[in-house]
Amino acid sequence: xxxxxxxxxxxxxxxxxxxxxxxxxxxxxxxxxxxxxxxxxxxxxxxxxxxxxxxxxxxxxxxxxxxxxxxxxxxxxxxxxxxxxxxxxxxxxxxxxxxxxxxxxxxxxxxxxxxxxxxxxxxxxxxxxxxxxxxxxxxxxxxxxxxxxxxxxxxxxxxxxxxxxxxxxxxxxxxxxx
Length: 178
Fold this sequence. Notes:
Layout: H1 15-54, H2 61-64, E1 66-74, E2 77-84, H3 87-98, E3 99-100, H4 113-120, H5 125-141, E4 143-144, H6 149-175
Antiparallel strand pairs: 1-2, 3-4
Helix pairs in contact: 1-6, 4-5
């Protein structure tokens, strides 16, 4: 289509250009999700690494329980879930972040033995006795929480947003007919 006047708003579109644009648009959902998955995985990896670094490590079990899962929910909808891989790990993270009120259920001593052994330098039956004393103390006095997620999200926000912006820019580049 060509206009006969020489106006700055004149333009020309050919059928070939339209077909190329149509081909690009048909491929976009797949291409868009590839770029977004890459960006979200990169962001999740960063958040996971920072979160693992902020968890106090005596046995390493809490930090090692952190995992990430990326899910595609549809075209342009990619999400990552970062956190403990098991129900026990989720419970431990909730207690770590929020603490435990005095009088709350006494923790199971076997959940405390590795920590007590490493932190207090105990072994054998001393570990069991120490874990039992700690469980009773936690039951009676409670514990203070140590929230780490807000600081992790604040620390990683700019970089994660940058990963997504880079992906969006790549998606837009791929949509342009050259």
